[in-house]
Amino acid sequence: MSLCLLNPEAIAEDRSSIDLIIKGDYIVTMNDADQIIRQGAVAVESGTIVAVGPFVDIDRRYRAKETLSGEERLVMPGLINGHSHAAMTLLRGIADDLSLNEWLNDYIFPAERTFVDPEFVRLGTELACWEMVRGGTTTFVDMYYHSETIAEVVDSCGMRAFVSATVIDQKSPDANDAEESLKNAVRFVTKWQGKHPRITPIFGPHANYTLNASQLRATRDAAKKLGAPISIHMAESMFEVEYARDNYGMGSVSMFESIDFFDGPTIAAHMVWPSEQEIRILAERNVGVIYNPTSNMKTAAGVAPIVRMLEEGVAVGIGTDGAASNNDLDMWEEMRIGGLLQKVNRMDPKVLTAKTVLSMATRMGADAIGLADSIGSLESGKRADLIQIMLDDVHHLPTYDVISHLVYVTDEQDVDSVIVDGSILMRDGRPLRIDRERVRQAAAALAQNIQIKMKEL
């Protein structure tokens, strides 16, 4: 036995063989203890994290087929974009500086009816995946049309996604009305449910001003029958709240509560205008809320009461919304702006600390969308969705507090490597599963065509 202990070859033979080790000068676990490990590593086998700890311990226990260097790098969970319309990257900048209603009704809805088809959605979602992977986003919740095509792109690009089939009571790119769009949604969810480890098909009723109460209730009934979550715009603008009051005699959240809409997993995007009573409803009904600060500022929708919702125990994540109202998919920007906006809105620099904001983009964000058991932190047994951040840029010098730097300094250009479900999607800042030149050329050609035809609308 003593000879074996002294024999390096015997020690090596005792190590378990695994797929991947990711090293880092810092491992920001985002676990319940907010543990940060210096000179650490994450061990991955078959898409699952099997160990997290100091590199010397990981190296003693495992030998990997591949190891990612950790020099001047930080390892953390991948970012979770809780609300997006991915294919709208192709409508980026098409209409700006407008109110939400004018932007939707006079520009976006007409443009979508004219240009959006499966190939538009395929290309736009590929462009979005490129942008999100480049920026360290590993999971996104999407709501758009031609959901089958979106799922196919997610499969090929390697990301994790909740893909919503949009339900809306107007002529849209893939349906004529609510009845047809709901049938399409049921068909999509039934086909994809449980069939893919990274893709969760869900229902995406648009809002309470594009669907009436019976149509919203029918969507929830269909979701309950299939055991599927719902993602929806809720209390985004004063128009929506006033619409609910005029038509239902109560606020937007209260209207949804009155029809038992929260009788299943619900991801509510925006939530800018809930009342105090409605915030308590959100907490009691375990509604996940997604904060979209840049989009809400750009459309002057308002400032969501994030601090109050957190105080009441609501799980709050962060989202970019679509690139047509943001106009990018940069989660680092959302974290920084979102945190600072709450401070100035409350006139209190102590609210929404960097640690809380980072949690909203990782661990709490996973909770808000119902994936807290599988992603959002670096812990044994969870899926291996993680990223490496380079710390060698001048804006990271000096580094006193890595959490502070991640929220107030880091940007998408600092992301070095991206791993989803144990597969490397980006290495050394280069996405590996997206044909960038093809996407670039196709997007430029389509944009030229859109710009010409928009003048005719």
UniProtKB/TrEMBL annotation:
Domain Amidohydrolase-related span(s) in chain numbering: 74-424
Record HAMAP family: MTA_SAH_deamin
InterPro entries found in the cross-reference section: Amidohydro-rel, Deaminase_MtaD/DadD, Metal-dep_hydrolase_composite, Metal_Hydrolase, MTA/SAH_deaminase
Keyword Metal-binding: yes
Pfam families linked to this entry: Amidohydro_1
Protein name per its UniProtKB record: Amidohydrolase-related domain-containing protein
Keyword entries, A-Z: Hydrolase, Metal-binding, Zinc
GO MF term (any one): deaminase activity
Gene3D superfamilies with a match to the protein in the record: Metal-dependent hydrolases, Urease, subunit C, domain 1
Organism: marine metagenome
